[in-house]
Amino acid sequence: MARSRGNKIELTAYDELFETKESREEAALSKIREIPISEIDEFPDHPFKVLMDEDMEQLVESIKRNGVMTPATVRLKEDGRYELISGHRRKKACELAGLETLKCEVKELTRDEAIIIMVESNLQRSTILPSEKAFAYKMRLEAMKRQAGRPPKENSSPVGTHLRSDAELAEKVGESHNQKSLTPISNGGLILTPPG
Fold this sequence. Notes:
- By secondary structure, the protein is of the alpha/beta class.
- It has a domain at 8-110: Conserved hypothetical protein from pyrococcus furiosus pfu- 392566-001, ParB domain.
- The protein has helices at 14-17, 21-29, 54-66, 88-96, 111-122, 130-147, 166-173, and strands at residues 3-5, 8-10, 32-36, 40-41, 72-76, 82-86, 101-106, 181-184, 190-193.
- The strands form three sheets. Strands 3-7-5-6-4 form a five-stranded mixed β-sheet. Strands 1-2 form a two-stranded antiparallel sheet.
């Protein structure tokens, strides 16, 4: 099956076409491993605070009893360390529980893919400050624009209409701007019309 990554289409590898369901599941599990907490770096500009509240106390107790039930998500950095994408609360709870490792799923992600996953995984939480949510949405939007190949500050008009002065438009059509005026039309554009 073809997979799409932004503007690029990735085709399924020849070997993957003949894999069994069990071997695909085994390959996914092989990406889950215990990673020393000391090798995991926080996500830069992570907009969500890790609160030391009653929920955190319960999470610490649960991890002491049962371990980490849902792996955190990390990506490998160029320096060989890991960047935490989701699981900031689980990481803190493991530290408070005295554990030295965190069960993680290691994913190959671009920076923008990591931002989108980080934001979407945290928006599921019930207690998020409006300022955290706003900053997170902004981060996700900018990442999505970069993935689509759009500059971050590009005009957001749906049809890409750029307004020009009547002088610029008149010059383009070889008329004096004194003889023409701009008339707005229903689609948000402008047309040159004679005065009067």
